[in-house]
Amino acid sequence: MVIRDEITPKALVSATGEVFEAARAATHRLKERASELEGAPVFTVEGRYMPKGWTEWTQGFQFGNAVLLFDALGDESLLEYARSETVRRMTPHLTHTGVHDHGFNNVSTYGNLLRLSYEGRTSKDEWEREFYRLALKVSGCVQAARWTPLPDGLGYVPSFNGAHSLFADTIRSMRSLAVAYRLGAELHGEQDSRISLLTRLLQHSETTARYNVYFGAGRDRWDIPGRVVHESLFNVQSGSYRAPSSQQGYSPFTTWTRGHAWILCGFAELLEFLETLDDSEFQKHGIDGLRSKSSVLERFREVATAVAEFYIEHTATDGIPYWDTGAPGLVQLGDWRAKPADPWNKHEPVDSSAAAIGAQGLLRLGRALGSQGDRYVGAGLTVCSTLFDDPYLSRDDGHEGILLHSLYHRPNRWDHEPDSDGVARGESCMWGDYHLLELALYVSRLARDKPYLVFDPEMTDGKG
How far apart (Å, rounded) are the C-alpha atoms in residues 26 and 33? Predict the structure, then answer.
């Protein structure tokens, strides 16, 4: 990536406005047709959102988009839609024991609605707030109860694949544990054993750092600093690590860029959350080697910085990654890192959703590092300037998506391939739309000196 240091949040205000207006039209279009869908919308085919039964992990983004647009534009119809559909449709997601997606579904809906209430943007009714708080506490505890223990005091929330499977994606569901912990929730197990959500957050994060993130320590031939593997496999009987794997990437020894972006964004936003806790909380709820605030923050900075550097090094000049850094067709593109990404190339697709997720991670990491983070802020804003414009922002009045050239699952060939070259392009996905909106809202608030955008409602400035 070529970092454009001249870009500032204020310089992107007009562009964020275009994102919000395009998104408002697309969200209203989908809202009018949503009753036709049998399941949550996942990705578009020729501009129309379709469900894809795997897990219903995108439902929260569907209604979360409406919440974010109300936040940005004050569109009351979208607020009421989000509130009513959250009540009507999201309850099963609170108690879903079979997935690792609570942070995606429930913090995007109940969490955003509670944050807006605290900010004084919506009703301050205490019973409504308590409804959101209870939902978030339940979600965090249910997510934490989905657990695979490992030796040495570690463990993880397994993916929907089973107890043996640790996904990179799940680091962003640790936000559900974080919010529930802040709200005072505690998981109770057998014989009324008390299980700290902060402890499990730290255990999962450290397990992810050890096994899904590489630091150039020579653990295998492809141990490049900052590289990320999508999935780590464990023997659940012995707790021993077995191998890297990938469900959605090209191979276990290349980097699937959306999984990489989840790590970048997840560790950066958790770093911001952990900064707000008192040292005594780590002494009480920490794990071996991470029982002080300083040691925890140092570890999270180490992980996020390594991954951020890899992102900068392994994207095109405009900050957009191809779907996997080892995708076999990239060799046909020549030195693809020395020129802007080409979503129309005939060899490998880009993944703009990875860029939207990764950009927020870069921005949050840069802020957390203070003056030492200017490089990452500049990188994040460079990605924003690309995503907020053609050819990534959808301006088509007939398209239900917002962010174009997103990708879901290339190995399974689930994405729409409009041409005979077999390259997916021109379509949207629900998580890409959501993260583009969240990114635009984040930048807009910085530019306008509005309250800093946080996932934890209890961190809200001037909480009312």
Answer: 11
Q: What is the pLDDT of residues 297-347, one digit of tens each?
A: 999 999 999 999 999 999 999 999 999 999 999 999 999 999 999 999 999
* Distance (Å, whole) CA 216 – CA 175: 28
pLDDT, position 35: 84
Distance, in Å, from the CA atom of 375 to the CA atom of 365, rounded to the nearest integer, reads 10
Q: What is the separation, in whole angstroms, between the first and last Cα of the chain?
A: 41
Give the integer Cα–Cα distance in Å for 81 and 78: 5
C-alpha to C-alpha distance for 353 and 286, rounded to whole angstroms: 33
Helices (H), 183-236: 197-211
Q: What would the pLDDT profile of 406-458 be if each residue is shown by its tens digit?
A: 999 999 999 999 999 999 999 999 999 999 999 999 999 999 999 999 999 99
> Residues 401, 394: contact at Cβ < 8 Å?
yes
Beta strands in 150-285 (DSSP E): 155-156, 165-167, 187-188, 194-195, 231-234, 241-245
CATH of domain 10-451: 1.50.10.10
Q: CA 18, CA 37: separation in Å to the nearest integer?
A: 28
* Separation CA 301–CA 273 (nearest Å): 13
Which run of H or of E encompasses 51?
Answer: strand 48-51
Amino acid at 243: A
**pLDDT above 90: residue 372:** yes
pLDDT at 199 over 90: yes
Extract the tokens encoding 84. 């009513």
CA distance linking residue 451 with residue 442, whole number of Å: 10
Please give the C-alpha separations between residue 369 and each of 349, 406, 447, in angstroms, as whole numbers.
Answer: 33, 30, 19
